[in-house]
Prior knowledge:
Layout: H1 2-23, H2 33-48, H3 64-71, E1 86-88, E2 95-97, H4 102-108, H5 116-137, H6 141-157, H7 168-185, H8 192-210, H9 219-232, H10 235-251, H11 253-263, H12 283-291, H13 294-310, H14 317-336, H15 347-365
Antiparallel strand pairs: 1-2
Amino acid sequence: MKAVKIFFSTVFLAILASNIRLISQWTESRGVYDDICYLRQAHLFQRFGWQGLDTSLARETDGYLAARLRSIDFPNWNEPTRAPCHTQTADGSKWVMTPPPGTGFALALFPEGFQVVPLYVVANVLIAGFALYGLWRAREKVTLTLAALFGALAIYFMINPTKASYSMAPTMVVCALAGLFTARLFIDEGRRRLLMIAAVGILLGLSASFRIANVVLSAGYFLFFGLSFLIWRTRETFVQGLTLGLAFLVGMVPVFAANLVNSGNPLVSAYGGQDTAPPSLDPAVLRAYLRDTQFPLILIAGVGTALLWRFARVAGIRKLALLVAANLALNLAFFATHPVFTQYYIIPVLMLSLWTLLFAAVLTRGSAQGAIVHEPDGPRPPEMLSRPAT
């Protein structure tokens, strides 16, 4: 087993090195309109500090936006109100950016002109770290195989499709960490369970700061803990749901602050147009997903969730499978009825689900000879999850 782990660790590092070599050749003027907005947000943070949350075009006094647009041959580059991903507020008082501030903040951590490359390098290294952690925690042939295959795939995904949007790099890291904490909150006992719930809630809320659509990543969690309280009506289930909700709000603080500064209301986003269109079934969008590489991943995540349910050996893991299934279903329903298709829209929930499934497998099958239980077909009260099996 150790020799196999060393071999695949070498494979992971080789893929990581290849990714870094490719990333080092990237340019920040690749002609993608959304890139300009993320870079402008980073510029505002570096120029004004936390007051960079204010993205009003009235602050565009140094010509940064015009220069960026001109570098990609954008038509009307000298007319700020024609800039991509900018919109006029409802009262018509100013023009602001639509994306949330998280991606710009992450880019602002690095020197201007050299921000994208280090952001992606750091994200790739962190994902490789999660992959290595899963690999070395595996104790059985099945889990080792899963960790090896998924680890290599996860590192590869940090180039394609992650390169499609700067917001995807930090999102992928958050999904991996949230997957680890989600698995642990169904495995750990006692007080650490509330700690894991709080950590997951903060991460899910924080993910919306990088990409506002990431807020849907929390849908299955709220459904699961909400139904748990409605079914069992215990103090424990109430506290767990409350902890998740409060932690999620804490993670959403950057989004609320940006909304307040730019739109005048913490609950009103600057987004508009197709991004806020009501749900509708578009056959063209459905066909696009069926032909895209995201579809095989959907099948893998679905099959993995079903297998986790079927072969669950540790108390609480079937509950985890229900949560993952609910989250997958709600996110897929949302994006299937969204009027816009991209090659990365469903990737965050798929990676969150797959990381959760992987960590659940390696952390339970590798640690719990003595914690193996035979669960009944029906659900069990959440308070039973912390009782040792007899």
